């Protein structure tokens, strides 16, 4: 397909996802007002002007995503990569599960797990219904719905936000000139970032850790669908990574730090420093923070209340650059795209 056509197809695809996400949320919120209304005053009002800014930011993200693919940093196919099977299979379940999410939220039940879910042995900060999600991160159903829920939350921009780590990572790996670089994804969840990494840095040996066995199973399912070496997936706590010192050319982490208490955030950063080789890089993608876009402050105030994110408020003003430097990283570069923030930190 000629480039202009591919670009147009990608823009249309993203606009379709935006429209779907927006319509889904509007309808679900209308239904909630009827079935299970939220007490007035629980959330701040978000001024209408914010929506125009959000739309602009989303379009900017689509542009930069296109530019990176067009420059050959990652294949253009990645732009259209969407788990369609899961969408058709699990979208009805997302809708049917929504009333139980409302109930949990209304009754402030934050550690509510089904009888089949074994919560033993996990850190207490983790045994939570993050996002009021049924079974937290600890069931097959949660793993099946997660990607779809995140895509709906971000109006189809979750993968484009994840892809923002690829250009600095590839640049760094290319600069090292190591034939088979080892790259670790810390809290790899259902494996979407690992899939992008495999398509972008084909020569790399990939590793993923996560605390959730069901999310790792889902990651394995996703990564087995296409041809390519399977990343090594291990169930482990990022506070004690099961690797020797100085093992990886690069480590990355996507959407983890806002879900960790402050002290654990530092421990995980220290661990990422330990397992990354000198001259290696650590790249973090997570939510934007309060000072990045003060206009988004009301939205960021509402987010932890509406979505049960108990550590988000602290995260939203935390000095992550300071934490990276105190672990030993240097030359930390920071950037923002849409609703996310990136730290690229060097070791040695
Ligand atoms: C918001 S999800 C992000 C998942 C994935 N990186 C993504 O981009 O969708 C947070 C992930 O962190 C994992 N997690 C949370 N605390 C962890 C810890 N201490 N060690 C390892 N994984 C953890 C969860 O199981 C979950 O998969």
Question: Could you walk me through the main structural features you see in this protein, from its secondary elements to its overall organization?
Answer:
This protein is α/β, with parallel strands linked by helices. The protein has a domain at 162-346: 3-Layer(aba) Sandwich (Rossmann fold). 48% of the residues lie in helices and 14% in strands. The protein contains 12 helices and 7 strands. Strands 3-2-1-4-5-7-6 form a 7-stranded mixed sheet, with helices on both faces. A hairpin with a 2-residue loop joins strand 6 (330-337) and strand 7. Helix 3 packs across helix 4 (140-153) and helix 4 packs across helix 8 (213-225). The mean pLDDT is 94. Residues 126, 137, 162, 187-189, 192-193, 209-212, 215, 237-239, 254-256, 259 line the site of S-adenosylmethionine.
Please summarize the sheet with the most strands: 7 strands, mixed
Number of helices: 12
Helix content: 40-55%
Broad structural category: alpha/beta
- Please report the distance between the alpha carbons of the first and last residues: 44 Å
- What number is the mean pLDDT? 94
If strands are numbered along the chain, what order do they take across the biggest sheet?
3-2-1-4-5-7-6
Keywords, separated by commas or semicolons:
single chain, 348 residues, alpha/beta, Rossmann fold, 12 helices, 7 strands, globular, binds S-adenosylmethionine
């Amino acid at each position: 397909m000629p480039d202009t056509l591919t670009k147009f197809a990608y823009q249309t695809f993203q606009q379709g996802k935006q429209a779907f996400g927006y319509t889904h949320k509007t309808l679900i919120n209308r239904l909630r007002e009827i079935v299970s209304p939220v007490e007035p005053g629980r959330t701040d009002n978000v001024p209408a002007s914010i929506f125009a800014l959000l739309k602009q930011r989303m379009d900017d993200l689509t542009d930069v995503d296109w530019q990176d693919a067009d420059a050959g940093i990652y294949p253009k196919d990645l732009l259209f990569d969407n788990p369609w099977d899961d969408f058709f299979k699990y979208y009805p379940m997302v809708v049917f599960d929504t009333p139980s999410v409302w109930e949990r939220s209304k009754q402030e039940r934050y550690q509510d797990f089904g009888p089949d879910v074994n919560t033993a042995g996990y850190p207490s900060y983790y045994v939570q219904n993050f996002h009021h999600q049924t079974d937290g991160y600890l069931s097959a159903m949660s793993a099946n719905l997660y990607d779809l829920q995140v895509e709906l939350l971000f109006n189809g921009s979750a993968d484009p936000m994840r892809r923002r780590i690829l250009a600095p990572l590839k640049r760094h790996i290319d600069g090292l000139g190591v034939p088979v670089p080892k790259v670790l994804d810390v809290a790899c969840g259902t494996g979407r970032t690992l899939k992008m990494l495999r398509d972008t840095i084909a020569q790399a040996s990939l590793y993923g850790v996560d605390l959730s066995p069901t999310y790792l199973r889902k990651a394995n399912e996703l990564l087995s669908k296409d041809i390519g070496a399977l990343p090594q997936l291990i169930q482990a706590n990022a506070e004690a990574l099961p690797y020797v010192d100085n093992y990886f050319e690069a480590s990355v982490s996507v959407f983890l730090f806002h879900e960790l208490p402050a002290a654990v955030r530092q421990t995980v950063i220290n661990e990422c420093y330990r397992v990354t080789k000198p001259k290696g890089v650590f790249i973090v993608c997570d939510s934007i923070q309060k000072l990045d876009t003060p206009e988004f402050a009301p939205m960021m105030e509402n987010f932890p209340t509406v979505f049960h994110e108990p550590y988000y408020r602290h995260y939203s003003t935390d000095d992550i650059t300071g934490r990276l430097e105190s672990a030993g990283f240097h030359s930390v570069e920071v950037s923002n795209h849409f609703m996310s923030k990136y730290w690229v930190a060097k070791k040695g």
